[in-house]
Structures are given as structure tokens and as C-alpha cells.
Write a structure and sequence with these properties.
Radius of gyration: 17 Å
Largest sheet: none
Number of helices: 5
Strand content: under 5%
Shape: globular
Helix content: 55-70%
Length: 118
């Protein structure tokens, strides 16, 4: 038994729930239509399947992680509700956060430098 058994079980449970809801198929594969415009139905499904995700560890301070979780739960989810998105997954939230960070490498480097000099 390892310290990650609960995490592994949770991942398996989530994958099983997604499998029960059926396979994810891109709308343009089934209809040949342009999917550049978002519909209400598009907002009711996760952006990508669990199979496309990877479990990766991050190692922030406990206080930073708690602030991050609060940020997602309070701030980000409020904005999602304003957009009528109510079934976001953790993997989608993490994907979005990472993509925003990727778009701002200078700020990430500056923050790391500031952390080292404080």
C-alpha cells in the first residue's frame, strides 16, 4: 500500500463515471459542421476526456496550495457559473491554469526570482 492508493482509486472512479456517460466524440467528426462557435451543449461536456490527461505532481507550499484551491473554488468557479458552466472537472481547471501560465513565462520567472530573493 502506498500513500497514493486513494488518489489512484479516485482517478479510477472518475474514469469509470466518464466511461458510463459514453465516449467523447468531437462534433465536427459526427456532423462535419464547424465547431468554432460554442453552443450550450458544448459547455455541458468536459473539454477533453480523462484518457487524455496525465497525473503529474506539483510541489507548492501548503499555504500556496490552499490559496490555489480557494481561488479555483471561489473565484474561478464563480466566473464559470456566470458563463453557465457548472460541471467543470479538476483536470479542466488545471489545464486552463497551466495554459495561462504558459502564456506568461516572464511573470513566472519573475515570481520565482522574487521568491528566491525574499
Amino acid at each position: 500500500m502506498t500513500g497514493f492508493d486513494d488518489l489512484n482509486e479516485a482517478g479510477k472512479d472518475q474514469a469509470a463515471e466518464e466511461e458510463e456517460s459514453g465516449p467523447v466524440v468531437d462534433a465536427d467528426e459526427t456532423t462535419g459542421q464547424d465547431t468554432s462557435t460554442s453552443t450550450v451543449n458544448d459547455r455541458n461536456e468536459p473539454a477533453f476526456s480523462f484518457d487524455e490527461s496525465v497525473q503529474a505532481q506539483i510541489y507548492p507550499r501548503k499555504s500556496t496550495h490552499e490559496k490555489f484551491e480557494d481561488f479555483l473554488d471561489i473565484e474561478v468557479k464563480r466566473h464559470l457559473r456566470d458563463r453557465n458552466i457548472r460541471n467543470e472537472t479538476g483536470r479542466e481547471l488545471h489545464e486552463a491554469v497551466l495554459k495561462v501560465a504558459i502564456q506568461h513565462p516572464e511573470e513566472v520567472a519573475e515570481r520565482l526570482e522574487n521568491e528566491r530573493t525574499e
